[in-house]
Amino acid sequence: MVSAGAPVLMHDNRSFRYGDGLFETMKMTEGRILLGKFHFERLFNSLSLLGYSIPSSFTESLVENLVHELAIKNDCRSLCRIRLTVFRGNGNLFPVPAELNYIVECSPLKKTVNLLNEEGLTIGVFPDARKSCDRFSAIKSANFLPYVLGTMYAEKNKLDDCVLLNTNGDLADSTIANVFLVQENNISTPALAEGCINGVMRRYLLEKFQEHRYSCTERKVSADELVTADELFLTNSINGIRWVKKLGNKQYNNTITRNIYKEFIEPIFAE
Fold first, then answer.
1. CATH number for the domain including 185?
2. Contact status, residue 181 vs residue 221, Cβ threshold 8 Å
3. DSSP readout, 216-230?
4. Which of 14, 57, 179, 232 could form a disulfide with 20 if both were Cys (CB 3.0 to 4.6 A apart)?
5. Domain total for the chain?
């Protein structure tokens, strides 16, 4: 274990040089990693897809033990954000090193992350970057440039967040969340083939919607639908769900969003 301010990476770290890495952002509450099964399943599937050589010692149990040990040391086991970064060692672009390296970080969270935001978000559409739609686009890659630029755009324009479009001009996701629309009680979200991140909270809600017979569809969502939707909400593993109040001149309500929060999100945060 090292201090958060101590240097831990080499100058030729491949994640730093080439974006050759991925990460998981997880939430711990009262010593429990929320939706841990989904996080670890996504992690190992992503490592396999990216061609990592996974040592037998790198297991879900190992990561969980390290996370618990670090959370205790940082005195934030009751409520914290965890970031696990995995990268493919150090070196030049070729030859590709085989070793798997990782870093675990954790930091305390405010209790407000467990609540539905009372003030709706004001968001926009980032006009300058387009997400690709390929077999790697759903991975939480260290190659995060479109999202970085999107957050800079949001900050410059005094927005809480902004959505990104794919190369076809359709909706992908936001800088830190998946996007859901509600139109006449029907819920929609961009399909994974549309370039969005395979979010853990997104997956959890899709399963819950199916179990409880909510009308929800994964599909291509055009950018024009952002201004025809009745409600718009964002999901990620830290905040659960946040409702959007405004996009440009469009105003949204939050009736169904509040019901979803109370029925599916509040219980897992309260367990």
1. 3.20.10.10
2. yes
3. EEEE--BGGGGGT-S
4. 14
5. 2
- Whether 131 maps to a domain, the answer reads yes
Shared-domain flag, residues 134 and 220: yes
In single-letter form, the type of residue at position 153 comes to Y
Residues 69, 157 within the same domain? no
Antiparallel, parallel or unpaired: β 21-29 and 32-33: antiparallel
Give the DSSP letter string of 15-50: HHHH--EEEEEEEEETTEETTHHHHHHHHHHHHHHT
Q: H or E segment at 179?
A: strand 178-183
For every one of its 271 residues, what pLDDT tens digit does the chain have, with 9 covering 90 and above? 999 889 898 999 999 999 999 999 999 999 999 999 999 999 999 999 999 999 999 999 999 999 999 999 999 999 999 999 999 999 999 988 888 999 999 999 999 999 999 999 999 999 999 999 999 999 999 999 999 999 999 999 999 999 999 999 999 999 999 999 999 989 999 999 999 999 999 999 999 999 998 999 999 999 999 999 999 999 999 999 999 999 999 999 999 999 999 999 999 987 6
3 is a domain residue: no
The answer to whether residues 20 and 145 belong to one domain is no
- DSSP per-residue codes, 87-137: E--BS-SSSPP---EEEEEEEE--GGGGS--SSPEEEEEEEEEEE--STTT
| Domain encompassing residue 25 | 14-109
Peptide bond connecting 267 to the previous residue in cis, omega within 30 degrees of 0: no
CA dist 38 and 202 (Å) reads: 10
